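re: ur question from earlier - yeah i can do the single chain one, its not a big deal. heres the input i used so u can compare w yours
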Amino acid sequence: MARKARLAWIPEPRRWRAKADRPVARKNLGDRRRIGGPPIPGLQRHSLDSAIFHRQSAAAHDVYPSSKRYSGVLSGHQTLAESLELFGDALVEHDDGFRAYNTGGDFARMQLITNKTNSTSANTGLRWQPFGDWHLEGNALFSQVDTLASVDYSPAFFGYTNGTPYLRNLDTIKETDVKLDGTLWASGGSAIKAAAGGSYRREDFSSLVEFTSDNREVNRRVHAAFAEIYAPLISDANAIMGIRRLELSAAVRNDTYSDFAPRPTLG
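and the output i got, formated as tokens:
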């Protein structure tokens, strides 16, 4: 006989588990877990599809019983000339999430939160090899995450209609990067290599409370520059007793934020 799957709530740790529909040993394990037993007071699930919970007591809880994600990726590159290449990729993603949250206490409020998130990201750039193993690469990135949340309150929240849009968060990033790297000097199987580059990034974030039209917006700009050098001091070609390989790697980077002081980094 085919076994039906059912959901069992395990409070420690908090998560949903699917168990086969079979007899469960009623043995006291000392951890107060209930597997395949009756619903625990304070939390009862009526339907897996609707993911609706009813508040039966003031016990606090915070669970994420449902989440769906759909995504697609497109990537490609094209040779434009013998030493010039165009590349790019794009991502589109949609997420549906559900959260059940109870504040607990004498004035407990149940919140059934539904999130719908649309994410898009696109990156394109050029890679050029002017001579030897030197490469110059530049690229641009655009990324945006748009999240819309609706809530069902129990008891009702004054001024808000359950199930209507409650909060919309919009996070946008625009970035450009450029990098040059290659060999400065080579001899006897050893090579001194260097890299240098910079980037610019702008971040914008807004949070709109839909039913009150209260909109909060913040943004910042980040400039960065870096340089790095790599030199093998001792290699197989000039190894000495007790030392077969010794390398030097040094780097410096400076990030300047529009809302913070510059932060140079040495390494």
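The chain has one domain: 61-266. not sure if urs matches, ping me
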